[in-house]
Design goal:
This protein has about 450 residues and is of the alpha+beta class. The protein folds into three domains: about 100 residues, Rossmann fold (3-Layer(aba) Sandwich), CATH 3.40.50.20; about 70 residues, Dna Ligase, domain 1; about 240 residues, 2-Layer Sandwich (D-amino Acid Aminotransferase, Chain A, domain 1), CATH 3.30.470. It has 14 helices and 22 strands. An eight-stranded antiparallel β-sheet has the order 13-12-9-10-11-14-21-19, with helices on both faces. Strands 3-2-1-4-5 form a five-stranded parallel β-sheet, with helices on both faces. The chain has a three-stranded antiparallel β-sheet with strand order 7-6-8, with helices on one face. Strand 12 and strand 13 form a beta hairpin. Bound molecules: ligand MV4. Ligand MV4 binds next to strand 8 and strand 13.
């Protein structure tokens, strides 16, 4: 097992990884930017190293500085968390070149699944259902137009290097499609330095369900069931839960088996997620894979009792997965609300600043994964998530009641948070009945209301 790990991240996930390491008897080196120099979680790491100024391009994205710190402190491995360098295959190779273990999949698996069009192709060869669309990248606009005629409008143009909703364009007719193709290519080239685009039938009012995977470096892969991430706004997830209220046990088994098949083909190791869309007729389609630990991983930890971060570390160290698929079960219901320092009633504008009053909820089955407390200053320089409130109960109805109680108990001030918004969503009859799709929030809350202060 590793003696010392470097954590190449910040905020709640840095703290989450520090906690796992402390329980495992592994020393930690945490890197931080000048902006984060007062972060209280740094005191829980064995060493803290400043890697540059506030902009992530000058700190958390600086592979060279992170690897230097790793060499100076003689670490065995680097945990990237999520975001920043977590899905950067070149960084994985740089770690290996410096004889440092990257805690995640191989660069090869990452590249194979990171290219969305290539991942879809792999899924098809694994007999995993995919959305009807182009078999490859679109070379000529005319070929996309022909295809759209065949599969029918609306269609969606996606960037192969994209993901999470970036670089997507919906088209309702041929003229629409031609300009969408041009715009999508341009955007993809600018944002990802990769103009590759592909085409899919646009699935209307889908649900978003993803399967958690763990694979070791010896070819064993298990799934840890699904998370339902349908409740989102502008591609930002707000609430995640498991089990999904939208699928029956047959679909669940199909989905989970499909995800494992795909990961075998990608020779996948470590933690990963396979994303699906579910349409109104309960058909499921693979859309993309995430080659990292995800924000919403605690939902899966609650219902399976399995510590995903510890397994990521063990797997990277070469341990075999001793978990047996038949021993992994879905127990009860877990729900997570992402709490952001944003004003939900003014278009979710970021609301950074110093937290003066603070009381987190607690009690049976309540988990608060966060790096904040009274006295913490939330920086405007990074994303606005300040913590994840996760509850676990025997049934979904009880989990909802527990979440309402927790949201009511929460006190944070004077900064504004998404707590009151979560309170509305979670008590909405359509959410309670599991009768939602990815457009639920945008249809029911006019969060685009003009912002009087800007
Ligand atoms: C789609 C889709 C409908 N049809 N693909 C958005 C994020 C990215 N991961 C994929 N996304 C979508 N792809 C087809 N063919 C609708 C979405 C989508 C969505 C997906 C998951 C969660 C929230 C979403 C919100 C709007 C659109």
């Amino acid at each position: 097992m590793f003696t010392r790990i470097l954590i190449a991240n910040r905020g709640e996930i840095a703290l989450r990884i520090i906690r796992a390491c402390r329980e495992m008897g592994i020393q930690t080196v945490c890197v931080y930017s000048e902006e984060d120099r007062h972060a209280s979680y740094l005191a829980l790491a064995n060493h803290a190293v400043c890697i540059g100024p506030a902009p992530s391009s000058e700190s958390y994205l600086r592979a060279d500085r992170i690897i230097s710190a790793a060499e100076v402190y003689n670490v065995d491995a680097i945990h990237p968390g999520y975001g920043f360098l977590a899905e950067n295959a070149q960084f994985v190779e740089q770690c290996l070149d410096s004889r440092i273990q990257f805690i995640g999949p191989s660069a090869e698996s990452m590249r194979m699944l990171g290219d969305k069009s290539a991942a879809k192709k792999l899924a098809r060869s694994a007999k995993v259902p995919t959305v009807p669309g182009s078999a490859d990248l679109i070379e000529e606009d005319d070929e996309a137009v022909q295809l759209a005629k065949k599969i029918g409008y609306p269609v969606i143009v996606k960037a192969t290097a994209g993901g999470g909703g970036r670089g997507m364009r919906i088209a309702h007719n041929e003229a629409n499609l031609r300009s969408s193709l041009r715009q999508a290519r341009q955007e993809a080239d600018a944002a990802f330095k990769n103009p590759g685009i592909y085409l899919e039938k646009f699935i209307e009012r889908p649900r978003h369900v993803e399967v958690q995977i763990l694979g070791d470096r010896h070819g064993t892969i298990v799934h840890l069931f699904e998370r339902d991430c349908t409740i989102q706004r502008r591609y930002q997830k707000l609430i995640e839960e498991s089990p999904s209220p939208a699928i029956d046990s047959h679909t669940r088994e199909e989905l989970c088996k499909a995800a494992v098949r795909l990961c075998h083909l990608a020779k996948y190791s470590n933690a990963g997620t396979v994303e699906f869309l579910i349409d109104a007729k309960k058909n499921y389609y693979f859309i993309e894979a995430n080659t990292r630990i995800q924000v919403e991983h605690p939902v899966t930890e609650w219902i399976t009792g399995i510590d995903l971060i510890k397994w990521q570390i063990r797997i990277a160290a070469g341990d075999t997965l001793t978990l047996k698929q038949r021993d992994i079960t879905q127990n009860g219901a877990a729900i997570e609300c992402r709490i952001n320092a944003e004003d939900p009633y003014h278009n979710f504008r970021p609301c950074p600043g110093k937290i003066e009053t603070f009381r987190a909820p607690g009690g049976f089955g309540v988990r608060w994964d966060s790096f904040v407390g009274a006295g913490t200053t939330i920086s405007p320089k990074y994303d606005s998530m300040i913590g994840k409130l996760v509850v676990h109960r025997p049934t979904r109805a009880e989990a909802i009641q527990c979440m309402i109680r927790c949201l009511d108990e929460f006190q944070i001030g004077p900064i504004l948070t998404t707590i009151p918004f979560h309170r509305e969503v979670i008590a909405h009859p359509d959410f309670v009945n599991g009768n939602v799709d990815t457009g639920f929030v945008d249809r029911n809350w006019n969060t685009n209301a003009p912002n009087p202060k800007s």
